[in-house]
Design a protein that fits this description.
With 119 residues, this protein is an all-alpha fold. The protein has 8 helices and no strands.
C-alpha cells in the first residue's frame, strides 16, 4: 500500500525533519523547544514516520502519541501554530518533492496544528 511515508522514504523524511527544525530553532517559536534538540528531532522523525503511514516507531519507543496531552505544558497560541506551519511549509518546499506530493504532505499538518493549539 502506498502511503506518504513510502512515497517520501525514510531518508527524505529525516532530511525534512532536520530542515524543519533548522527553521524552527531560529524562529519566533524556538522558545517552545527547550529539551535537547537531537531528542526533539528524533521524536518528530519517529512520530512522522508513524503519522504518515510507516512503522509504528513512536508508539514502540514512547507509547501512544497522545500529542495534545504531550503539548499541554507549552503555550501554543494561534501565532505559534501559524509559525509552526510556515516552517513546515518552507521545509517541504525545499525538499524538491513533486507538487502533488508536496501538497498532500503539507495538507496533513493544518488539522494537526489546530489540534495542538491550546491557548
Amino acid at each position: 500500500m502506498d502511503t506518504l511515508y513510502t512515497k517520501i522514504g525514510p531518508e527524505k523524511l529525516r532530511k525534512l525533519v532536520d530542515r524543519f527544525y533548522d527553521l524552527v530553532f531560529t524562529s519566533e517559536i524556538q522558545h517552545l523547544f527547550t529539551t535537547d534538540k537531537d531528542i526533539v528531532r528524533e521524536k518528530q522523525y519517529n512520530f512522522l514516520t508513524q503519522f504518515l503511514g510507516g512503522p509504528q516507531l513512536y508508539s514502540e519507543k514512547y507509547g501512544p502519541p497522545r500529542m495534545k496531552m504531550r503539548h499541554l505544558p507549552h503555550a501554543i497560541d494561534e501565532k505559534a501554530k501559524i509559525e509552526w506551519l510556515r516552517c513546515m511549509k518552507m521545509a517541504i518546499d525545499e525538499m524538491g518533492f513533486n507538487d502533488d506530493l508536496a501538497e498532500a504532505l503539507y495538507n496533513c499538518f493544518p488539522k494537526l496544528a489546530n489540534h495542538m493549539q491550546n491557548r
